Amino acid sequence: MLSPVFSLSRRLLLALGLGLVVAGGLALAPAFSGQDRSDARAATGYASVTVDTAPLGASLYGPTGERLRAMMQAEMKRRFRITGDATQPRLVVRITEIVIPANFGLDNQSGGAALQTTDRMDGETLVVAPDGKVLQRFPVTVTAPSSTALGENGVEADFRRLGDLVRSFASWSARYAGSR
User: Fold this and answer.
1) Per-residue pLDDT tens for 75-117?
2) Residue 50 DSSP SS3
3) By its UniProt entry, which PROSITE patterns does this protein fall under (predicted)?
């Protein structure tokens, strides 16, 4: 039979251990919750945000380039505090490559051959001082499965896929440049 002192110290040790596990779990919960925490750091103020799609050249035909610029501009303004104060640094988003391959309809359920395709956007987010000097450079590459618009074709489906890339790019930019 165990003595009452040993039993009490074992219970105390077990209670302390359990308390540490619960406290550690609560502390780590936001990191593993799947929530986008980038907005918490978006309080960093910037004078303005500019989106540069010139590196894409002629690969953006029609209104796609302007629509990309507008989508990225709106998403970056949503994620960062834009002050208009010319004494603060500004953000420059430079998009260098976009790959949105044809969506051939992935159908792995039927056992048929499936072509795995991935959408991708490459670029960088720059923090630029009022005098034009680049203070920080954050390369960003984001990908998404092209099947996000499965069964849909046409320009609007491609813009929806592009919007997924834009939101992901802006989110990563906020993670990098949101806490300078």
Assistant:
1) 999 999 999 999 999 999 999 999 888 765 544 455 554 555 8
2) strand
3) TAT
Instruction: Indicate the SS3 state at residue 86.
Output: coil
Sign of torsion over alpha carbons 31, 37, 40, 45: positive
Domain 48-104+117-177: which CATH number of 3.90.1150, 1.10.3470, 3.30.70, 3.30.160: 3.30.160
The tokens 């799609």 sit on which residue? Answer: 53
The answer to whether residues 64 and 156 touch, using CB atoms and an 8 Å cutoff, is no
d(CA 20, CA 33): 20
Q: Which amino acid makes up residue 97?
A: E
Instruction: Go through 101-119 and write b for each residue having 16 or more CB atoms within 10 A of its CB, e for each that does not.
Output: eebeeeeeeeeeeeeebeb
DSSP structure class, residue 54: G
pTM of structure: 0.68
Q: Where are the domains of the chain?
A: 48-104+117-177
Is 140 strand, coil or helix?
A: strand
Residue 19 CB-density burial (10 A; 0-12 exposed, 13-18 middle, 19+ buried)? exposed
